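Objective 1.3, modelling of assemblies. Example input:
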Amino acid sequence: MRTSCATVSRDFAIPAVLAKLPRTHFGRWVIVPSFVKDPTEPKENDLGCSYLLFSSTFDGPLDSYVDELCSQLAPEAERIWGCCIGCPESAGRPGLKAYLLHNQIETGLFFSAYPTTSLETVKESLHTREQTIAFATRTQGMEPAALHKAFLEELRS
Amino acid sequence: MGPSIDYADIQGDILRAYGNRYDRTSYVFVAVGDPEHGQAWLSGLLDKVTTAVPWRGPRPETTLNVAFTHAGLAAVGVAPQTLDSFSTEFRQGMSRRAPKLGDAGDSDPKHWNEGLGTGSAHVLITINAQDELSLQAVLSALRAGLRDAGNLSIAHEEHAQMRGDAREHFGFADGFSQPAIEGVSEDKARGGGVPEANGGWRPLALGEFILGYADEESRVDSQRRLPSAPAGPLGRGGTYMVWRKLHQDVALFRRTLRDAAHLYDAGDEDQLAAKIVGRWRNGTPLVASPTAEQASFDAKAADANDFRYADVDLDGRRCPLGAHIRRANPRDALGFVGRLSFRHRMIRRGMPYGPALDSDAVEDDGKERGLVFVCFNASISRQFESVQRQWLNDGNVFHLGHDTDFLLGGGTASTGKMKVQGAPPFFVSPQGPFVTTRGGEYLFVPSITGLAAVADGVTG
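Predicted structure (tokens):
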């Protein structure tokens, strides 16, 4: 699995892959080879094989998100999950969606940096912040009249 | 209680600096042609290597220390299975880690000085000297020794020298804030150690800086397991060393500072310079003294670095959130007391190279000058690289967006700036390429036992 994931990350730029899902705040694929051994436990907790964990923080409902994932990421998704046990071979979108939902783990606790703000709003806010700082930097030390003029020009642009 | 430390088996200048008396440092990178000649030459050096045993009586005129790149360990015949037991980043070397370190543009390894970052630098001999005469004598002896040994050559050499005012080229006192280590420098725990919730500080575990000893993770591990280290005799008493030649464009920095200060209402040029660095030029911390330099500031005093950010300056009104020293060592500024920063400390032993730029010059004189940055740490990726990548090259963790460390500078087409918190805030810009990497290597400094094993060819 590690080899095929390495070729996936060689063939696709992961940020670009996730950019195809514009509702995604933060997404990642992680290979879990085994549980970390707790030194206080008598024996190792062996998983038997490696597991692929995909986690994502996104806007809106899960169902349509998985739909988008299966349609927008068709070639990548097939390559990524195609090396997992039980993934239907070239099953197309409905098969992959069912497979992903079947393997979903409900999480009781998760962290979201912007729980009430959509990704679109976050990006707009960042843009506004950068524009504002650039304006402030550019106009530092200006006389009031010139600053007023520059401000109006900034608003118009 | 700290561990029992075998100083005689640890090389000098790591845990305790040799001191300002040694105002000349020469770095000679040697290329080894074959293991036999390399081992024979190293055997002849063994009794010249300076250890960490504290000096009683007069100090030697010169000191000598030895470190290896990964290619160097292979070149002197270290066994393959031992070579594989070193950390990934060390095996890759600094030039292959360049994209992670931000060494791009003019700092890209393809522009580095000859002999650095190419795999031809194998063994680093560091010589510290109290005067020019004794330095030249040792260098001559070293060159003669290389000739006599055969199949050895010099890949690169750098000669650094402390300035008369003991400051780095931008004009700041440097290098006196170091991690306080259990059993070594506990007297500097306040400000140098780990801040604790009760207002106290505790020194760091030795294993953060010397392999083969318990580190900060061992402290909370019920079995007190030691951090990962190379196999065999190289696994104890050694450490990793980062060596970087950093060119400083002093004239550009001065012009930027002068031009920005014209627009800065909250103080003069010296105040703005202090805001960029986080200290006044003589080292007085801004947090402790926000409006003026303390003329009586003594960098060697036990309480010289005894300050925190969270209690008095969380918003950066005294020391800006993006000030160089606050980014390089945030202490408790990231919250959770010091728990987000204490695993990312390093021992620094930098030294300026090149002549000082005339004190009032604002145009470049075409002379090469800068800092040979040297640091020691048990994990290059967790310590040096994390600071470089997460704190200096990215502002996110400090809520500074894409802002990189202003002092280290941006690329030639940089739109970078630094925010100085205040009412109103002030933005220092443009951020020029103040510092450019001219070359560098990741090295391993073996213990005395480890070095003897390398010289004897019995490491695997």
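The interface with chain A takes residues 221-223, 262-263, 401, 415, 417, 419, 425-427, 429 of chain B (CB under 8 Å).
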